[in-house]
Amino acid sequence: MTSRSLTTTVQALLFGVLMLVLTISPLSAQTGTITGTVVATQGGAPLSGASVSVIGTVRGSVTNPNGVYEITVPAGVYTLRARMIGFASAERRVTVRAGQLLTVDFQLPPGALLIDEISVTGSRTARTVEETPVPVDVISSADVRSSGQFETGQLLSFEVPSFHASHQTISDGTDHVNPASLRGLGPDQVLVLVNGKRRHQSGLVHVNGTFGRGTVGVDLNAIPTAAIQRIEVLRDGAAAQYGSDAISGVINIVLKEQTDALEMNSSVGITGEGDGETVKTDINYGFGIGDRGYFNITGEFLDRGRTDRSETFTGAIFTSDGATDAAELSARGLTRDDFTMKTGQSEAIVGAAFFNSAYPLDETAELYAFGGVSHRNGVATGFYRLPRQEERVVFEIFPNGFLPEIHTEIDDASVGAGIRGNRSGWDLDFSVSHGSNSIQLLQCLFIVITSKKILISLIVKEETRNVVQANKSSGTAQHLKSQETHTQISFVHRF
């Protein structure tokens, strides 16, 4: 990003915050507070972690360990809904006057798992999934834990109809950044949001004959599954609401807000073929800030082994004559298995940390921030360079050819912050988010070749994409980097 565009972004942020504070500050005298408890009908035990929401708005609260909640709203008539997994939901109609402290208690009977999930995707206001005008799937944190998947892209593939993201093989950088597809369209035609804000794209352009060739998508696997509270998936075109990159739909990943809880999980897995050993460990902790604020942080470590589904190589190795190849293999003490490629998912070691927070400014406004970083080391392989391919092999070094390895380092970072509030039935939100994704690939060929360098810079609005390619004596190195900054001002009226 240039210094001029950065200055413009900062000026826009300061102006937006000033205008929003000026419009929100008079609200404290026009609001009332709803408080109460949520308990189980059987035994009257308080329900910690129950959700209480104001239907038709983005306002809500989560009960503390004593089952107590508190919501501040402008004066008016509202419908409250209390819900919790394992209990039937309940609704109450209330009238709130300015300056009033209203007590509304809920008793929830045992019931089936929650089906009236709340979603904001596709309508830009809080509605149940049954009320949304378009098909929206909601994947809860319980679904995330029970899916058995270690990465976000694969989790969505197993949980969402018409979504597909699989590990590629022998495709350079695409071995490590899965091209995602919703409703059969390309990776750049599905919009990914985090907490309702646009997620930056990957630095990789898919070019090696895989699905989505020529496109740039979002690296979903840079978001740790342990940080996810729920995922909302709009499986319909939403270009009119969100822009042309939402032609196939929208995926909104909502980060955890829970407080006063420590979660630690560890899981292991292996394929039926005995490879692809995977170990994942994660930890999540949240604590309260003031009366209604929170800070939640997640750390995750993933060690994923590679898989191999290759069969014995049957093609020409030294010459096009099969008898000559057989004699040469015998003379060198080799077999055809020694010339087999590795076809399967790449090896990866991943570390990630994410946070989500909010701090109330007054009764009707709050500051919020979220973001995270991740680092991935990956190892994949290319096509086997055979001895008969004289232009690809230096026989003084590799008389039997070689299998090149592609070592990849991916660094991803993002942060978003803003202020939101309510005035006269309008939900106001001003935010700025920035993200970057950097990919460095080193293809170990061990061939002495001429050094050269290519630099390409593309700047589109506030997005920059840099591609640096350098051929070195130790191999071929590529450095791909993408940076994006988004400024969003939202006005939503509640009818």
Description:
This protein has five helices and 27 strands. By secondary structure, it is mostly beta strands. A ten-stranded antiparallel β-sheet has the order 18-19-20-21-22-23-24-27-26-25, covered by helices on one side. Strands 11-16-17-14-15 form a five-stranded mixed β-sheet. A hairpin with a 2-residue loop joins strand 5 and strand 6 (87-96). It is elongated.
Reconstruct the topology from this structure.
Layout: H1 3-24, E1 31-40, E2 51-54, E3 60-62, E4 68-74, E5 76-84, E6 87-96, E7 101-103, E8 106-108, E9 118-119, E10 127-128, E11 136-140, H2 141-146, H3 152-159, E12 163-164, E13 181-182, E14 190-194, E15 197-198, E16 228-234, H4 239-242, E17 249-255, E18 261-269, E19 278-289, E20 293-304, H5 322-332, E21 347-360, E22 365-381, E23 405-423, E24 426-444, E25 452-460, E26 463-472, E27 475-493
Parallel strand pairs: 1-7, 1-8, 14-17
Antiparallel strand pairs: 1-4, 2-3, 2-5, 5-6, 9-10, 11-16, 12-13, 14-15, 16-17, 18-19, 19-20, 20-21, 21-22, 22-23, 23-24, 24-27, 25-26, 26-27
The main pleated sheet reads as: 10 strands, antiparallel
Overall strand count: 27
Mean pLDDT: 80
Distance between the termini: 40 Å
Helix vs. strand class: mainly beta
**Uncertain regions: pLDDT < 50 for 5+ in a row?**
1-6, 20-29, 112-116, 122-129, 445-475
DSSP helical segment count: 5
Helix content: 10-25%
Oligomer: single chain
Q: How large a portion of the residues is in β-strands, by DSSP E?
A: over 45%
Please give the order of strands in the largest beta sheet.
18-19-20-21-22-23-24-27-26-25
Indicate the overall shape.
elongated
**Structural Rg:** 27 Å
